[in-house]
Design a protein that fits this description.
By secondary structure, the chain is an alpha/beta fold. The chain has 16 helices and 10 strands. Strands 1, 2, 3, 4, 5, 6, 7, 8, 9 and 10 form a 10-stranded mixed beta sheet that branches.
């Protein structure tokens, strides 16, 4: 029991992806584990997929809500269930590298003051081919000082909880935090965890994150005032968290200003034009609905003339044709170059990893 880990998997209507996620946990080199699946009333083939796997391996536990309770309440239910020394959070369409638990738990076992371990995440497309890479150095770093919160925000440390293992005590954060106005389920929790606790970062592949064009993180509006308020509220909570040092609590204003700086005229215009060009060159990357929503948000933010100009550019066929003529060759070359780079990595340094991935699929 002392080194047992639970994989928390919340799911909704993704039975085939879910099967892959569960298999990636069952095939861990660290075998002392359990898998807790929380089905938010999928009413499709999810129960059958899980039941079939349970018949072969009793380390899987399954809960199904009736009726649907929503994503965030489902996460809260999952976090309250943690009853093992360690746990991780795995989305139903993501999956783990085989030695993920072994690597992370070894660090936690020999460093009792470290409350969670972060590893790297590779991004894969819907066919489980490499889509986004990260540099893996196999270097282990510890973050024990008050600057750990800033380091977590630096961009040098992954912030995807798919490749993180936590001690049981960290789960209490989810029970305490206010997620009534949250739109996700990870960053508020992770900010609190990095603010309260020491952590370690091992630069090694631990998990795979599935990229979808229609996922929330991809299609989220970049100029949504409501979302900006949600982001700032995360820091407000930390500012009033008595379990956090005074220095970290005082960083609230710095990060609030950074969020608001994204609403400068120049930033909004540049991002809007980039998205328009992507849509003109390949309308499967950013849909017209997303473009129109962002133009509406720009107008609501007070940039009336900018939104009007962008709307004309977006809907005018002549303008679209000009933009396509100018940027399509560059955009196509960029896509092809990226694809070739990913294929070289997948068939090279990651060949063994992706042979394993093919076996999961």
């Amino acid at each position: 029991m002392e080194d047992k880990v639970t994989a928390l998997i919340t799911t909704y209507r993704r039975p085939e992806y879910l099967r892959r996620a569960i298999l990636s946990v069952l095939r861990q080199t660290h075998g002392n584990l359990q898998i807790s699946v929380f089905d938010d009333a999928s009413n499709d083939g999810t129960r059958e997929v899980v039941s079939n796997l349970i018949s072969k391996d009793n380390r899987i536990k399954y809960w199904c809500h009736e009726p649907n309770i929503g994503s965030l309440p489902n996460f809260r239910y999952a976090f309250k269930s943690v009853n093992t020394p360690y746990f991780s959070v795995l989305s139903d369409d993501d999956f783990l590298a085989t030695d993920f638990y072994e690597s992370a738990i070894n660090i936690l076992k020999y460093n009792p003051d470290i409350m969670f371990v972060i590893m790297n995440t590779l991004i894969v497309d819907k066919d489980a081919n490499l889509y986004g890479n990260c540099i893996n150095t196999n270097i282990l770093n510890f973050y024990r000082d008050d600057d750990r919160f800033d380091r977590f925000h630096s961009g040098d440390i992954p912030t995807t909880w798919t490749a993180m293992v936590f001690r049981k005590e960290v789960a209490q954060i989810y029970a305490e935090m206010d997620d009534r106005y949250e739109v996700g389920s990870d960053m508020r929790f992770l900010f609190h965890a990095a603010a309260r606790y020491n952590f370690a970062y091992l630069s090694k592949v631990g998990a795979f994150f599935s990229y979808h064009n229609n996922s929330f993180s991809v299609s989220r509006s970049y100029v949504d005032p409501v979302y900006a308020g949600v982001q700032i509220s995360r820091y407000v909570e930390i500012c009033y968290d008595e379990n956090v040092s005074q220095y970290i609590r005082g960083r609230f204003l710095f990060y609030a200003r950074k969020i608001l700086s994204r609403y400068s005229y120049k930033t909004i215009l540049v991002v809007a034009l980039k998205n328009l060009i992507k849509n003109v060159c390949n309308d499967t990357v950013i849909s017209s609905d997303v473009i129109e929503r962002d133009i509406k948000h720009i107008k609501c933010a007070g940039y009336v003339n900018t939104s009007a100009i962008l709307n004309i550019v977006h809907k005018n066929k002549i303008t679209s044709k000009i933009l396509r003529t100018l940027f399509f060759p560059y955009y196509t070359k960029k896509i092809v170059r990226h694809k070739v780079e990913m294929e070289k990595l997948q068939d090279g340094i990651y060949k063994e990893l992706f042979n394993y991935v093919k076996g999961l699929n």
